Amino acid sequence: MVREGLESIPEAALPAGYSFRLYREGDESHWADIETLASEFPEREAALTRFRQEFCPYLDEMKRRCLFVVSPVGRYVGTTTAWYGDTLGDGVQGRIHWVAVIPEEQGSKLAKPLLSEALRVMAALGHERAYLTTQTTSWKAVNMYLQYGFKPHVRGELCREGWSLIEEQLGRPVLT
Fold first, then answer.
1. 76 dihedral zone (left: phi>0; alpha: psi -120 to 50; beta)
2. Statement: residue 159 has pLDDT above 80
3. For 2-133, which CATH class?
4. Total Cβ atoms within 10 A of residue 128
5. Would you state the pLDDT for residue 133?
6. 3-state secondary structure the chain
7. Across the chain, which distance is largest between two alpha carbons, in Å?
8. Whole-prediction pTM
9. CA 146 – CA 151 distance, rounded (Å)
10. CA distance readout (Å), 103 to 24, 40, 67
């Protein structure tokens, strides 16, 4: 999915008592816990391995780009990274990467503020547009991304089939 332009980012405030925090060295354990609890990885060690492979060479960037949501009692409950990449094949763009909220906090109105903050970070770092990758099982998240101005990026028939599944789940057309 692609969002052209990073102006007019929707406002969404965290619930009272929750706060954002940028990555600090050692927070990879929090990242791995959140991503594992959100079923992105089958076990914590797999999440830590992925973090080390993908982010350890860029820890200075992580300190500017990786966001956590911290609960009123100090528990790390959500994360995403305002990352970058060239998946679209047209130069480096901002990338919403590894969005996750732990199951106990899903439905607590954390995802939209997390997305808004990540887009603001991207804009502040000079990105002019954003993209993300997703899957058909994340149709609720896809609905939020659509509300935030992201559009489907179709790269073939299999991709088009996936968007048809999303349209069925949402009960409305998405591809125009």
1. beta
2. yes
3. alpha beta
4. 13
5. 92
6. CEEECCCCCCCCCCCCCCEEEECCCCCHHHHHHHHHHCCCCCCHHHHHHHHHHHCHHHHHHHHHHEEEEECCCCCEEEEEEEEEECCCCCCCEEEEEEEEECHHHCCCCCHHHHHHHHHHHHHHCCCCEEECCCCHHHHHHHHHHHHCCCECCCCCHHHHHHHHHHHHHHCCCCCC
7. 47
8. 0.94
9. 6
10. 24, 12, 18
Ramachandran class of 8: left when φ > 0, alpha when ψ lies in -120 to 50, beta otherwise: left
Query: What's residue 9's pLDDT?
Result: 97
Confidence of residue 123 (pLDDT cuts 50, 70, 90): very high
Instruction: Name the amino acid, one letter, at 142.
Output: V
According to DSSP, the residues that pair with 67 across neighbouring strands are 22, 80
Domain with CATH 3.40.630.30 in the chain: 2-133
**Tokens 């409305």 -> residue:** 172
- Cβ-based neighbours of 151, under 8 Å, separated by 6 or more: 1, 2, 3, 4
Distance CA 4, CA 112 (A): 18
